[in-house]
Amino acid sequence: MKRIVTIQDISCIGRCSLTVALPVISALGIECAVIPTAVLSNHTAFSGFTFCDLTDQITPIVEQWQREGLTFDAVYTGYLGSFEQIRIVSHIIDVLRAQNPALRVIVDPAMADFGKLYTGFDETFAREMTSLCKKADIVLPNLTEACYMLGIPYPEHGCSEDEYKAILYKLSALGCPTTVLTGVSLRENRIGAMSYDRESDTYFCYENEHLAAQFHGTGDIFASVVTGAVTRGMSVSRALTLAVDFTLACIRSTMADADHRWYGVNFESVLGQLTAASDAMQNEPVPGENHEN
Ligand code: PXL
User: Fold this and answer.
1) Residue 209's domain is classified under what CATH number?
2) Ligand 1 center from residue 122 Cα (angstroms)
3) How many domains does the chain have?
4) SS3 call for 24
């Protein structure tokens, strides 16, 4: 079984970061190790929150794993709370890559959405995130995060296909071979993701229905599905398709629940779709793709 380590906060209430990464990656048939970077009472979109910083735990946890001889197939980073955490996580990527040269590094620069940075972040932090993206195999910003990382204005009224492509191309110049932009909408009532693969110089886009609702945590769900799927050997384009469809299923199930909560999506009721996708990957290896035995 593949093993991933995900490095991000645990928001005790909020259906984001570790509380979605763990179930999603597990449902995809992968062992999911965690390094919690901070414990928050709830995510930062609530009116207030407690924050217990765990920066000093990150390196000792990894050093102990080194002593045990534990290795990883992938590292997936999400919300990080400080410059120091970015620096430490960047070093950990070097250490784990030295141990496993085939390590896949997936970076979700979770720090902004809907044109605004999350509480507690500023523009210099956003620029610093680019240093982590340089070490990644796949980066998955939304449009807001991409604009902050590139230091360009957020296009309030959306983008044309060429504008999305230009953003992806500029992001890839930061040094990451595969860049994925989430929240891409080329056609009315459609939304999805677009990727750029630097080696083959090709773009890929997949959209599905755009429902008139916005929920927190969907970026974390999307990134967790992509991470799990590519670690299981899926191509990036198939992983994006699965992640777009699953994120839509989460939003649908949330909207169908009259008592739904504002702070996150009802991913629990559709998690079986990922278990099914995981079983299908086991049973129907796709020719030319790097599948497990
Ligand atoms: O979903 C991203 C996220 C993760 N972690 C924390 C957050 C947010 C978004 O607001 O506040 C603590």
Assistant:
1) 3.40.1190.20
2) 15
3) 1
4) helix
199 belongs to a structural domain: yes
Residue 26: the pLDDT is 98
Using CB atoms within 10 A of its CB, is residue 3 exposed (0-12), middle (13-18) or buried (19+)? middle
Specify the pTM.
Answer: 0.96
Tell me, yes or no, whether 198 lies in a domain: yes
Report whether residue 81 contacts ligand 1, using a CB cutoff of 6 Å: no
Residue 290 in any domain: the answer is no
* 118 Cβ below 6 A of ligand 1: yes
What are the residues whose beta carbons fall under 8 Å from the beta carbon of 110, sequence distance 6 or more? Answer: 8, 17, 78, 79, 80, 118, 145, 219, 220, 223
Q: In this predicted model, what pLDDT tens digit does every residue of 107-159 receive, in sequence order?
A: 999 999 999 999 999 999 999 999 999 999 999 999 999 999 999 999 998 89
43 CA distance to ligand 1 middle (Å): 5
CA-nearest residue, atom 12 of ligand 1? 43
**For the CA of 81, the nearest atom of ligand 1:** 12
